[in-house]
Amino acid sequence: VPQVQYVDQVVHVPVQKHVQVPMVQTVQKHVEVPQVEYVDQVVHVPVQKQVQVPMVQTVQRQVEVPQVEYADQVVHVPMEKHVHVPMVQTVQKHVEVPQVQYVDQVVHVPVQKQVQVPMVQTVQKHVEVPQVQYV
Asked: What is the dihedral angle through the alpha carbons of 120, 123, 124, 125, rounded to the nearest 10 degrees?
């Protein structure tokens, strides 16, 4: 019987390494910058001026006032007075007063009654009837 002989041979297999290299990405980002508004307010400042005011002095002075003498004389003036006296006259006047007659008429007014009638609504309904099979 022939014999089988095994010969081992070492074969070099190169090892492959996988390295993950990061990729750099540039992304734009929107940033809101707050706007500052300056509001100026004009304030009126009054200007103060210094004015020289002269000082007034009062001086007493003697003044002679002439004396006036009044001589009154009473004169009597008669006064006439006119008075109007009205005359009153009474006059009779005949006035005709028309006579008013009322005639009443009875009118029959029919009374209407309101009756609430129920509303009937018809709805179709599908019913399945089971089939019985006889064997």
From this structure: -120
